[in-house]
Amino acid sequence: MTVARALAQWSHAYRATPEDLALAERALADTVAVALAARAHPLRGLAAPLPDAARWAAMAHVLDFDDLHTDTTTHISVVTVPAVLAAGGDARAHLAGAGVMARLGAMLGWGHYAAGWHATCTAGAPAAAVAAGFALGLDVTGLATAMALAVPAAGGGQEAFGTHGKALQVGFAAEAGVRAARLARAGATADPGVLEAWLERVGGKPATDFPMAPAVPGGLAVKLFPCCYAMQRPIAALREVRDQVRGEITAVTVTTPAGTVHPLIHDRPATGLEGKFSLPYAVAAALLDDYPGFDSFTDDAVRRPAAQTLVDRVHADLLPGETGSLLDGRVSLRIALADGSEVRTELALPPGAPGRPPSDVDLRAKAAACGPDVPALLDGLTWTGAAELLRKHFPYIPYERQEA
């Protein structure tokens, strides 16, 4: 029994629960909403010549507003939803791919992510092969073959964070899975054992015994701020005490386990994209802006003198030890003011976390933030309708037409 065959058997044997189907529908709506929010983003033109799955995944990820599987630090839906839509699938195909991605992510473990791999891409390519393969009607052998054919694309590094490369490499992973599934359906052969060998080479621990339910163990976290998930907790904590901060801020100390801010690689951000991966800027945006939304993560917003002044006054006190989650422990913040007083706050779970799920009000507010027309577009959205909607708003334009 290879890992690939075990995962393929799990995906075929799994029977979706009502809770899983609700999760899939929320994932569809969230992924489509955050893609539509990026309609004016410069990446739209750059990604236009890419195939459907790559184009849609890149646009749904570029604002870093899509959901996250905190147990494995992977953005599951932004890979599997576009792969399913490109292959003509539905919620059941999404759950097959999402479940495989969660289980692959668990095998890869925190050490894989801490080593600098972009786990959304590494776990994502084989998972997208299952999502698309299930939509295309592949049997267990076909799904195992498709995963093997997707292994060459199972890469991606965290150096891309803060650049277009992050969203694009997620798109490449989604498209690689669709391509692999189509090749497997056409009769291409591959050794399923390559998935197991690859897992070992990149620091994972292969397994073949998987829990049957739920489809996505631990659930999915919904972001309420359009930035890296590692910034959600400090932003949410500061919003709870923002009204208490009066006068000049002389220093802000953030105390948190080191692993919980691992993706935040830009201490002195100069662009909006870099600001989405910056702990100091998370503090600045939370204190300066009524709502740290899209307007907080533009180049001009990041370069504001007030923001840059605050960024220079943030100090991170990182607690030692490895972590297996971006929500490990708690985040504590101490805000020192010019009059000698201090404001303190701490938080374990931000709103939207699996243990603190988003309310209907939260979800409606997020949809509205993605565009005034988005709530209506999401109303009654089907999987077929979602594909048509994305084709309309993100049309394929080949390089030749662009250059002409």
- The shape is globular
Amount of beta strand = 5-15%
Residue stretches low in confidence (pLDDT < 50, at least 5 long) are none
> Quaternary state, please?
single chain
Number of domains as seen in the coordinates: 2
Q: What is the fold named in CATH at topology level of the largest domain? A: 2-methylcitrate dehydratase PrpD
CA(first)-CA(last) distance: 52 Å
Number of helices: 20
What structural category do the secondary elements indicate? alpha+beta
Number of strands: 4
Q: Whole-number radius of gyration?
A: 21 Å
| H/E element order | HHHHHHHHHHHHEHHHHEEEHHHH
| CATH homologous superfamily (4th level) name of the largest domain | 2-methylcitrate dehydratase PrpD
CATH architecture of the largest domain: Orthogonal Bundle
- Arrangement of strands in the largest sheet: 2-1-3-4
**What profile does the largest beta sheet have?**
4 strands, mixed
Q: Compute the average pLDDT.
A: 96
Give the class-level CATH name of the largest domain.
Mainly Alpha
Helix percent band: 40-55%
Domain MmgE/PrpD N-terminal: 53-196
Domain MmgE/PrpD C-terminal: 225-372
Pfam families: MmgE_PrpD_C, MmgE_PrpD_N
Organism: Streptomyces longisporus
Describe the fold and architecture.
Helix 1 crosses helix 9, helix 5 packs across helix 10 (164-186) and helix 8 (124-135) crosses helix 10 (164-186). The model has no long low-confidence stretch (mean pLDDT 96). This protein has helices spanning 3-13, 18-36, 43-47, 52-61, 77-87, 91-114, 119-122, 124-135, 140-150, 164-186, 193-201, 232-239, 272-275, 279-288, 299-302, 305-311, 360-369, 374-378, 383-393, 399-403; strands spanning 249-257, 314-319, 331-337, 342-347. The chain is 50% helix and 7% strand. It has 20 helices and 4 strands. Strand 3 and strand 4 form a beta hairpin. It folds into 2 domains: 3-224 and 358-403, Orthogonal Bundle (2-methylcitrate dehydratase PrpD); 229-347, 2-methylcitrate dehydratase PrpD (60s Ribosomal Protein L30, Chain: A, 2-Layer Sandwich). The N and C termini lie far apart (52 Å). The chain has a 4-stranded mixed beta sheet with strand order 2-1-3-4, with helices on one face. The chain is α+β, with helices and mostly antiparallel strands and 404 residues long. The radius of gyration is 21 Å and the shape is globular.
